[in-house]
């Protein structure tokens, strides 16, 4: 029975440490304090940050849609077997070999 007693003591010590690290309050009051702290953190930091990000994205989308002179890429360059790889690229001069 000695090993079981040591195991339960270790569990009790761990539980006591976690309880003290969380503020030393146990039971429903501990849970209620964590709920209140989490709610305050959400409404004071997380929610405003998300709303600001959403507002900035909407503003950027509106600005992009309202600019009539913006450049829009309509098609991609056509691949070509040149050394540059693009049809409008400069061709590489052929090298002369002594063969």
UniProtKB/TrEMBL annotation:
Region (Disordered) location: 73-99
Skewed-composition ranges (Basic and acidic residues): 90-99
Protein name (database record): Uncharacterized protein
């Amino acid at each position: 029975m000695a090993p079981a007693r040591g195991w339960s003591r270790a569990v009790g010590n761990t539980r006591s440490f976690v309880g003290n690290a969380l503020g030393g309050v146990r039971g429903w009051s501990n849970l209620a304090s964590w709920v209140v702290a989490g709610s305050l953190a959400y409404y004071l930091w997380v929610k405003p940050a998300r709303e600001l990000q959403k507002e900035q994205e909407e503003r950027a989308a509106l600005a992009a849609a309202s600019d009539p002179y913006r450049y829009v890429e309509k098609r991609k360059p056509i691949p070509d077997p040149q050394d540059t790889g693009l049809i409008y690229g400069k061709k590489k001069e052929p090298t002369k070999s002594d063969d």
